[in-house]
Specification:
This protein is 0% helix and 44% strand. A two-stranded parallel ribbon has the order 1-10. With 106 residues, it is mostly beta strands.
Length: 106
C-alpha cells in the first residue's frame, strides 16, 4: 500500500465485519512483516518491521443495532532517533466520529 495516497481525509478500509452490540474502550491493530521505503526529498530510507507490533488506541465508542459504526485508525511514520523509523497512531485524527474519504489503492 502506498501510504502517500492516504493523506488528509483519504482512508483505506482494512477490516469490515460485525461486532457484538456494546461499549468498547479501545482498538488494537497488529502489524507484522512490514518492509517499506520512505521517501524524504530525493532520498529513500528502508523501514523494516519484521516482528509483529501491536498499536492500541484508547478512544471509546459504541456499537448499536441502529447504525453502522466507522472507526478511523490514523497512523503516521515517526522518527524517534536518527535513521530509525516507527509507525505510531494519531489519536487526534482517529476514532468513530472522524470524517474520511474512502479510496481504493491498487
Amino acid at each position: 500500500v502506498d501510504l502517500t495516497q492516504l493523506t488528509g481525509l483519504n482512508a483505506l478500509e482494512i477490516w469490515k465485519g460485525k461486532l457484538p452490540v456494546g461499549e468498547y474502550t479501545s482498538v488494537r491493530v497488529e502489524i507484522a512483516n512490514v518492509y517499506a521505503v520512505l521517501k524524504i526529498g530525493a532520498t529513500t530510507v528502508s523501514i523494516d518491521i519484521p516482528d509483529a507490533i501491536s498499536l492500541e488506541m484508547a478512544i471509546p465508542f459504541e456499537i448499536t443495532n441502529e447504525s453502522l459504526t466507522n472507526y478511523v485508525y490514523d497512523l503516521t511514520v515517526t522518527s524517534p532517533s536518527l535513521g530509525d523509523y516507527d509507525l505510531a497512531p494519531v489519536e487526534g485524527e482517529s476514532g468513530p466520529d472522524q470524517e474520511f474519504q474512502l479510496i481504493s489503492v491498487p
